[in-house]
Amino acid sequence: MIQQKLYTFLVERKGWIPIGFLILAGFILLFLPRITAILLAAFFTAYAISPVVEFMDRRLHLPRAVATVLLMLAALLFVALLIFIIVPAIFSQLADAVGKLPSLAVAAITWLYETAYENGVDITQYQNLTEEALLERLGSFMPAFSSLPEFIGAVFRQTFSVLSFFVDLLIYAVVTFFVSTRLPAIFNSITGLFPPARKPEMMEWLDKFDRVLSGFIRGQIMVCFILGSFYTTGLTLAGLRDGASVGVLIGALCFVPYIGIITGVIIASLLALSAGGPLLMFKVFLVFVIIQSLDAVAITPNIMGKKVGISPVLVIIALFAGAELAGFLGVLVAVPTFAILKLIGGYLVDKYKSSAIYNAPVDTPKVD
C-alpha dihedral over 62, 64, 65, 66, to 10 degrees? Predict the structure, then answer.
């Protein structure tokens, strides 16, 4: 009887397809984390651009293949703009700003001595406030700033060599194109394998996965776009040189919680201090306070809502884990993968708490 059921499921209903797929996926996940990251990144990318592809197909009458190629070219153009134009320009200004720090320190010390003298306060007794002492301490930090380009280069060399990076990028682009052009067919093939008796339950699970993925991927992209636009406008109005470039960089980095805002504050503050002094730095800080307040109160809660349900701390842990396992692509897929695993884990915990094992009655203690 059992053999007959197995034969019916594996052969007649083609059950060997999902089983083989799960075995292959498990093998790749355990032994080939880099390939897993590429495949997951391609799937998540195709899923994220699916609404736009469907819109272009339905309203503009563009085939899915053409729409996918156009979107991929637009994304490639943005990444190239970010890497080859915006980031080098910002780091060039940052290097100039770091070079001006000693002179700014001298000016600040001179102003402090003059202000104190005018108000009848003698601060020469404090050895730590002398110009030589402060410049000596500031100089101890200069090697760290001067070695910043070498550090960044080492990180990039460690993460991906030139050849492996372009191979991974090619595989990622091909798989993304394939999945995006055939996403409806893939979805229908998967749902067609669901047993009729369990199909409503499995469709409900697909809907849960859709809410989690759309809540994070599409929601985070929207948040990054809005924050990037706000920071671009705010920093430009504040008078920061190339504030638009800094705003675009912050918007791109905001995909990673905390990293975008911390990096943006450091870069913008140094540039503002070297270019316009304390007043411009105060304006820049004011821009960050206003936009971050808007983000905390209105932007992120209304766009992301509670669809994902992952705290920022867990997001950072997932990002570190993804980077450790698969480098840069691991960072891209870490949070969506963790969100799905969290959803499955919550379901298993609920099942366990409703089981007879968890709810077994406590043995009545014996009375002597």
Answer: 30
Q: Which residue is associated with the tokens 């929207």?
A: 222
Q: Which residues contact 222 (CB under 8 A, 6 or more apart)?
A: 303
Mean per-residue pLDDT pooled into runs of 10, the chain (368 residues): 62 60 63 72 84 88 91 88 83 76 69 70 55 54 48 49 71 88 83 79 82 76 90 92 88 78 87 83 92 85 65 73 71 76 80 77 58
Query: How does DSSP classify residue 307?
Result: S
Residue 36, token pair as written in the block: 């897993």
Backbone angles phi, psi at 16, to 5 degrees: -65, -20
Angle (nearest 5°) at CA 81 between 242 and 273: 25
pTM of the predicted model over 0.85: no
- Helix H segments across the chain? 2-7, 16-31, 33-48, 50-58, 64-81, 87-99, 101-118, 131-146, 148-159, 162-181, 183-192, 199-213, 219-238, 243-253, 259-294, 300-304, 312-353
